[in-house]
């Protein structure tokens, strides 16, 4: 970096000191508890490098980073893309701001980052990697980079061999057990004790022959040998392919044309990249939740709390529109909408519970006796909370739980700029009332359209016998923070699959115009097929189960008693891409050294059935069949399998149930 560049970066950093400090203060007022964040000012090229490196400044040497850098640069140059920020999951977190962005963009990024850092710190899926401790990922990745660079520089190891080995492992880096806490591949490795060794050790113990014959007789030793020889490896299907290969795999040697033991450097690199796969797994598993969480709180801070100044608001509105209007499945938009919907439904239920305790109000007459316009007015925040008048600070009571007494005293003495930062006067309770979701203009009809089914369900589980004399009394007792409290609970325990599975409803689908579409063989194009929430949910969940990649497990390391490997594709209604399958099996062969087999299920369609379906204007029903794909290092072969051979991997519907019972218990 030139001296001029350093001066520019320093000037920008100084101008952002106050926004950084105040964004952190505002985040905490709203109930967020993020990791501390270190902000870095970078130029355009440095930002592209960081994006290519997955948000870190140092990664191991490999051609893929250059490819990602070039793709990112061209996307910005030719497709009008714009890099706003990148932040990594670390403690402290590191966020990078591009120096060419406007102040409105920088503020948006800072508020967005604070929410990400909160999600990193509290979502339990991130804790699976670090064992509940705070991560030190930058140092870990730097160590890995040094280790792999040293292997590449070793005169006894070909650099190309290291790169090919890295390529092979990267091809399988989503095939880990993402529902288990990370552990070294050697942690569960059983000790290799040969039965003949046991016999030798018994002889060395110099035990009396009667004792040996009584306890460790030949029949017992033979039984152990038989059990050892017949044991299946693995005993149960193994989801962590990289750990399995670390323990049992071999490397294929081109020169000798056979499997050989992995070298120390190969085994070391395999475990390093496996560790990195586990680190990045949580980010892949929570993309919708995490980006939606950040977009939700960024919008509240920048828009509703006016963290974007009057002269910056239009620029910020354009910024947010570009993010939320990105084409395709947009995790920012889907996540933000779902978080807002959950907040509304929790707040609505809280209000309904209060109203159903009013004398004379039941789930049957609810819509007839409740004046929803009046109820909305009653739920409006206290005017003293909604809008702060700097000239009437004496009207705020420091003993009010909604008011931050210390900040009020500082504001009264002129130490706090209330016109710029009115939120400083309030506690979490005050902020929750200030931003109560049901009174926002876009949500004012949400309470009125509560269904009779929902009201009956709420009524059924009302265990509090206390009653209210009037509707006004009931609404005065509403907990404004109920929605936020529930959001923070959900943020701790869910991933994208469980998040969508539990909270995506028909009401949400209808409100936000979601639908499914399919390629129809009868017309040869794509058609909208359903607005049913179950169909939408299944379609979405297919893209998030196992990061949207096929789920593959190891079933047998001695298939057909020939030391061949048997993998299984857990079919969820979507067929494997045959060309990619072949490329992957070639990589797997390098980690096993002997023939590899993969059993899967395919859909086959008869030409006659297709013609009949076209004439009748309906979709044909394909037949599902079991297949075994085999690669022996030279050739591929495909053979039919009887249905009973693949029944254990067949989905009865769409398989997206991925809740880990171990840590939810």
Automatic annotation (TrEMBL):
<dbReference type="InterPro" id="IPR057008">
    <property type="entry name" value="SpoVR-like_C"/>
</dbReference>
<feature type="domain" description="SpoVR protein-like N-terminal">
    <location>
        <begin position="14"/>
        <end position="350"/>
    </location>
</feature>
<dbReference type="InterPro" id="IPR007390">
    <property type="entry name" value="Spore_V_R"/>
</dbReference>
<feature type="domain" description="SpoVR-like C-terminal">
    <location>
        <begin position="550"/>
        <end position="601"/>
    </location>
</feature>
<dbReference type="InterPro" id="IPR056174">
    <property type="entry name" value="SpoVR_N"/>
</dbReference>
<dbReference type="Pfam" id="PF24755">
    <property type="entry name" value="SpoVR_C"/>
</dbReference>
<protein>
    <submittedName>
        <fullName>PrkA cluster protein</fullName>
    </submittedName>
</protein>
<dbReference type="Pfam" id="PF04293">
    <property type="entry name" value="SpoVR"/>
</dbReference>
<feature type="domain" description="SpoVR protein-like N-terminal">
    <location>
        <begin position="482"/>
        <end position="548"/>
    </location>
</feature>
